Structures are given as C-alpha cells and as structure tokens.
Amino acid sequence: MEDDSRLWRLWQGCFERFRSAFTEPGFRRFVEYLTGLVLDPEEHTLTQAVTGLGRERDWAACERFLERGCWQTSRVEAAAWRAVAETFPETWHGYRVIAVDDTKVHRSSRNVWGTCTFHEYTARCPNRAETVRAHNWVVAGCLVPGRPWQCLPAASRLYFREGQVPRGERFVRKTAHAVDLLEKTAGTLRSDLLGVFDGAYAMSTVVQPLLDREPVGGRIDFVSRIRANARLYEIPPPRQPGRPGRPRKWGSRLPAPQDIEGWWARP
Predict the structure, then answer these.
(1) Which of 127, 156, 161 is nearest to 140 (CA)?
(2) 115 and 197, same domain (yes or no)
(3) Which one, 10, 125, 144, 267, has least CB within 10 Å?
C-alpha cells in the first residue's frame, strides 16, 4: 500500500507542469482521463478510461470536459515538449530530432466535427468499405534513442480539406501545419532541431519558410525522402547582360531519382 501511495504521488507530480493550462476543475478531469487511458491496455475510449478507474459515475462529467472543455493548447504542448526533453536529454550531434507526419483516426459518424472522407487503400477485404470517415492529424514527435529509436508525439494539428472547412474556421494546408509545429517546437525547446519528414512535406511550402525564418530559439535543419519520380532541374545559367525577356527559373532537366542509370551517366 505504501508503494502504491508513493507511485500515485509520483504520477500526480508528472502533471504539475500542465496545471497552468487548465482551470482547477478542468485539471482534475484532465488527470482523471489520462490516468484512465494509461491503465487501459485496450482501445482508448472514454468508456474504457473511466471504467478502468472504477469511476463510471463520472462518465458524463468527463464527456463534457472532452466535448466542451477549454484549455490553453500552447501551454499543454510546451509542457509536453519540456517533459520529453527532460526525460530524454540526449541529442543527436547537438540536434533534437523531430519527426512530422500525418495520420488518420477513423470516426464512423459524419456528425463528428472535423471529419473528412478518405479512400482506404488497404481495404482489400470485400467486407470493408473503400471510403472511410476519419480525422486527419498532422503530428510532431521527438525521436528518442532506443533499439529501435521511438517517436514520442507531443503536438498535433487537425487538418480538413478546403471544401469541408466548418463555418468560422480558416483553411490551413498540411505543409503550413508542419512549419508551425516545427517553429513552435524550436521556440519552446530553445535548441537546434532536425526535422524529419517524408516526400509529402519535401515541398517549397515547407522548405522555403524554414530556410527564410529567423533562428529564434534555435535553427531548424531538415532531412527528407524525395519522391522517386520527382522533377529535378539544374540551377539556371547566369543571365547575359542586355538579353531581353524574363530570367530563367529552371536549368536543364535532370534524371528523376528512380533513373539511377541516368545519374551514373552524367559527367
């Protein structure tokens, strides 16, 4: 019993960094809900979270907290980033490695706010629907050393298509969410970041803002995987003085990354 009490005090201490983001009643519901999620080894639903704690009578109160609760998201994200940084202080050659990607969470009801329809490419079973409804989240997480390395998500942004933006909400592209997540993380951790993302984010709308930003908090470098059929070009030659017309934006066409023989054949 003494060990259980000590474990509970340590667990409660982990939440103190989040207290300033909530009201006092909201903070209690926040601790209660997250504790239920951790104790539940199965699917993370509200019902299973309160059942795992033996707090079924608080189901309606927790539902109101999740549906209409208000808290300062920026403080919650900052506290999560600092918790990860303090728990795993190791860096990779001075960089905090931050992975950014998007993921879908299935939602069956069209009345759920922010859901979009997607084609399910993995639906090979004839009994599964090819079109599903889901939330689409852009997630940022810190890569921490291990065997293998693991990603600890700490911040996210909900994305929906321009034609499905709810009234009163502003349309934001996935790439803009990725830039915002990396910039906010650099400002919170006050350290240099190495952004890691796939070819979907290796675009000018991500790369250019990261190159043009002031190094507030820390610089942001990045590594990505170029699409196998990407269109690549050489740097255009210098413009000759007095030559009419607009300057060239692109040089000669280069072989795509998948055309390995074309790259080997280049001088």
Answers:
(1) 156
(2) yes
(3) 267
Claim to verify: residue 65 and residue 76 sit in the same structural domain: no
Domain end marker among 41, 71, 101: 71
What residue numbers bound the domain in which 211 lies?
A: 72-225
Instruction: For residues 218 and 200, give the distance between their C-alpha atoms in angstroms, rounded to a whole number.
Output: 24
CA distances from 89 to 74, 81, 212 (A): 22, 11, 28
pTM of structure? 0.80
179 shares a domain with 94: yes
Encoding tokens for residue 143?
Answer: 């890569």
Place of tokens 């909900």: 158
Q: Both tokens of residue 137?
A: 């989240």
- The secondary element (H helix, E strand) that includes residue 253 is strand 253-254
> Per-residue confidence of the chain (267 residues) as pLDDT tens digits?
456 678 878 888 889 999 999 999 899 899 888 888 888 777 677 888 888 788 888 888 888 888 888 899 999 999 999 999 998 998 889 999 999 999 888 777 777 777 877 777 654 556 666 778 888 899 999 998 888 888 999 999 999 888 878 788 889 999 999 999 999 999 999 989 999 998 889 888 998 998 888 887 888 999 988 778 888 888 888 888 888 888 888 888 888 888 877 777 666
Pairwise CA distance, residues 216 & 42, whole Å: 41
User: Could you write out the DSSP letters of every residue in 103-136?
Assistant: EEEE---TTSTT-EEEE-TT--STTS-SEEEEEE
Query: By three-state DSSP, how is residue 102 classified?
Result: strand
Same domain, 76 and 139: yes
